[in-house]
């Protein structure tokens, strides 16, 4: 059996879709599994032991040119099943005209009427995204979703070993969306109040380096190191795995932690856990503003600025809430 899984959205969405890879391999260990994602996220699945190949949608080639090239490549594979986790038209087009014997996806996809089977995707249902994704393959597996999983290689673990020589905490302070991002000055307060027995590593992409440099400049701690841009995605995950705790926003690094079962403190500002994208590690705590706020949640993804101008959902999170999670994580480490 040949199966293609499609998820061309953000980093975190790809990580969550790896739960389907785990589940399908468990039920069909001889199946050939392929994964389609967008360029920039392919590092997540480098040398993945359960995948035959990773297809890459490079929009920079020209959206439609690359789409037609991909369609030709997909049709040539003669897949038995295409599982489309993405809900936008481009991937729906690829799915509908893939030539696969069976195609499944969510009804929100504009091409879903052409799929063999389609399912309702409801972020208000209270279910986790891995459960919603699992619906797509439930009829050929079972109703119990697998957990997402990534596979850093030996070289990835070797790369980060130098930073594991003493107890450490990781922090990923940035997010694509401003209203998902815990404020810079509050990261500074957190860093300054963490027991100096812990080394603190700031994680992110090269684009996040300046933001984290500013946090370090405002901090009085001498135990902080900015690793932004020094590690690829799998290396970051390999480091997070052995942290006493990982402080993250509701963003990609939270899902990296889930995929390595790394202890997680997820800071929720404008979004809420009931949307179904929460942390999945065995030790995972969500910290958010105590008590309801009339404007929260203001959206599924967040905004470039607080629509109300006050950003109380983030600013009214107390530092003591975050420190309490570290104390609890240290007790079970």
UniProtKB/TrEMBL annotation:
Q: Which CDD domains match?
A: GT9_LPS_heptosyltransferase
GO cellular component annotations, sorted alphabetically? cytosol
Q: Where does the secretion signal sit in this chain?
A: none
Give me any GO biological process, just one. lipopolysaccharide core region biosynthetic process
| Presence of keyword Protease | no
**Pfam families under this entry?**
Glyco_transf_9
Which InterPro entries does UniProt cross-reference here?
Glyco_trans_9, LPS_LOS_Heptosyltrfase
Q: Which domain of life is it from?
A: Bacteria
GO terms for MF: ADP-heptose-lipopolysaccharide heptosyltransferase activity
UniProt keyword terms in alphabetical order:
Glycosyltransferase, Transferase
Q: What is the name of the protein in this document?
A: Heptosyltransferase
Organism of provenance: Pontibacter korlensis
């Amino acid at each position: 059996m040949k199966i293609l899984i499609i998820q061309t959205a953000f980093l975190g969405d790809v990580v969550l879709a790896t739960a389907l890879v785990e589940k399908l391999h468990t039920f069909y260990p001889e199946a050939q599994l392929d994964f389609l994602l967008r360029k920039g996220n392919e590092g997540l699945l480098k040398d993945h032991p359960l995948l035959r190949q990773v297809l890459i949608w490079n929009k920079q080639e020209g959206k439609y040119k690359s789409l037609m090239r991909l369609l030709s490549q997909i049709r040539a594979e003669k897949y038995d099943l295409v599982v489309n986790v993405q809900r936008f038209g481009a991937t729906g087009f690829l799915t509908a005209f893939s030539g696969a014997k069976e195609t499944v996806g969510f009804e929100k996809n504009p091409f879903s009427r052409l799929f063999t089977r389609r399912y309702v995707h409801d972020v208000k249902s209270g279910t986790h995204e891995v459960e919603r994704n699992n619906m797509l393959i439930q009829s050929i597996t079972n109703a119990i979703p697998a957990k997402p999983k990534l596979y850093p290689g030996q070289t990835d673990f070797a790369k980060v070993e130098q930073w594991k020589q003493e107890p450490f905490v990781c922090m990923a302070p940035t997010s694509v969306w401003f209203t998902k991002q815990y404020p810079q000055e509050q990261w500074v307060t957190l860093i300054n109040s963490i027991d100096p027995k812990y080394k603190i590593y700031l994680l992110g992409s090269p684009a996040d380096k300046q933001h984290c440099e500013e946090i370090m400049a405002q901090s009085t701690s001498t135990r902080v190191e900015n690793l932004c841009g020094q590690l690829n995605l799998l290396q970051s995950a390999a480091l997070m795995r052995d942290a006493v705790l990982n402080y993250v926003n509701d963003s990609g690094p939270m899902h990296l932690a889930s995929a390595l079962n790394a202890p997680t403190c997820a800071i929720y500002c404008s979004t809420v856990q009931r949307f179904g994208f929460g942390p999945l590690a065995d030790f995972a705590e969500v910290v958010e503003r105590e008590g309801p706020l009339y404007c929260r949640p203001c959206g599924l993804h967040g905004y470039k600025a607080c629509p109300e101008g006050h950003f109380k959902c983030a600013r009214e999170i107390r530092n003591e809430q975050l420190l309490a999670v570290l104390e609890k994580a240290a007790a079970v480490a």
